[in-house]
Amino acid sequence: MLASLLTAVLAVASAAPEVQVVGVIMAHSPERSVAILRSAGRTRVAGVGESAFGGRLVAVAADGATLEFGGEPVRIR
């Protein structure tokens, strides 16, 4: 069981590109918030539910964002 969990974690880590949060714009309604993301020298503005850098933005907070890669959430700052 531990081996399969470790394999799953490594698969997500290898699938998730190096993404940084450059900034966030918080809305009164969380689903309307956006994150400014950067990866490999490219910058993308994404709203909650939108795709960015191979993942889907699922949450934006004042101190970062959460993207989902292959069904697994990855918290970035």
Topology:
Blueprint: H1 2-15, E1 20-25, E2 34-39, E3 42-47, E4 51-52, E5 55-61, E6 64-69, E7 72-76
Antiparallel strand pairs: 1-2, 2-3, 4-5, 5-6, 6-7
Task: Describe the overall structure.
- 18% of the residues lie in helices and 49% in strands.
- The chain is α+β, with helices and mostly antiparallel strands.
- The chain has a single domain, classed as SH3 type barrels (Roll), CATH 2.30.30.
- The strands form 2 sheets. A 4-stranded antiparallel beta sheet has the order 4-5-6-7, with no helix packed on it. Strands 1-2-3 form a 3-stranded antiparallel beta sheet, with no helix packed on it.
- The mean pLDDT is 88.
Supply Rg.
Answer: 13 Å
The number of distinct helices, counting runs of at least 4 residues, comes to: 1
Report the β-strand fraction as a percent range. Answer: over 45%
Level-2 CATH architecture: Roll
What's the end-to-end separation, in Å?
Answer: 30 Å
SS-based class: alpha+beta
In CATH, what is the class? Mainly Beta
Describe the biggest sheet?
4 strands, antiparallel
What's the short story on this structure?
The chain has 77 residues and is an alpha+beta fold. The chain has one helix and seven strands, in the order αβββββββ. The protein has one domain (2-76): SH3 type barrels, CATH 2.30.30.
Q: Which features would summarize this protein structure in a list?
A:
49% strand; three-stranded antiparallel β-sheet; alpha+beta; four-stranded antiparallel β-sheet; 77 residues; single chain; SH3 type barrels
